[in-house]
Each structure stands twice: as C-alpha cells, then as structure tokens.
Write a structure and sequence with these properties.
The chain is mainly β and 115 residues long. It is built from no helices and eleven strands.
Length: 115
C-alpha cells in the first residue's frame, strides 16, 4: 500500500531553517510528481511546491518563492523541502502528496515558527 511519511518538522525561530523529508513507498516513486502542501489553523490546505518525476517542472507558491526549495532523490524514494528565512506565518502542518491514482497524503509534520 502507498505510504508517505513526513519528518523534520519542529519549533524554529523566525529567520531559521528546517528541512522536511517525505519517504515514500508502495508505488513507483520515480514516475510521479510530488508536492508539498501546508495547512495553518483555520485555513484551507494550500499547495506550496511541486516537482516533476525527474526533478524538473518545479513550481512554488508566491508565498514561499525564493525561500523554500523542493528536491527529490529517486534512489531514496524521498522528496525534500528546504525551508529558509522562516516566518511566523509559515507555521502550519506540512504534508506531502503524490499524484498517483486518486492521490495520497502523508500524516503531516508540524512546523512552528516562533520566538
């Protein structure tokens, strides 16, 4: 079965950095676009970054462009989100998603940006 397991979240001060990882299994990882979403309290889940199957076709939401970097390692079946210059408004639960079949989500990892 498809599994997506996010890790790397935590508490960080404004201006700090975190790297999120999403380990995938149960499908042919190298064949599918992977995406990162986030959901802040009281807000809808939003798409913030996506990456094509071979590492191209990268897109970012305007809110994270220039600060976040998405990447993938197809040999490790893992997608990453490097987050720099974090702001309090980046506080959210971060999810990875695969566009395989009906689409699958991980369980999410909490990122809290606060001093």
């Amino acid at each position: 079965q498809v599994q997506l397991v996010e890790s790397g979240g935590g508490l960080v001060q404004p201006g700090g950095s975190l790297r999120l990882s999403c380990a995938a299994s149960g499908f042919t990882f190298r064949s599918y676009t992977m995406s990162w979403y986030r959901q802040a309290p009281g807000k809808e889940r939003e798409l913030i970054a996506s990456i094509g199957s071979t590492g191209g076709r990268i897109n970012y939401a305007d809110s994270v462009k220039g600060r976040f970097t998405i990447s993938r390692d197809n040999a490790k079946n893992t997608v990453y989100l490097q987050m720099n210059s974090l702001k309090p408004e980046d506080t959210a639960v971060y999810y990875c998603r695969v566009s395989y079949s009906m689409g699958y989500w991980g369980q999410g990892t909490q990122v809290t940006v606060s001093s």
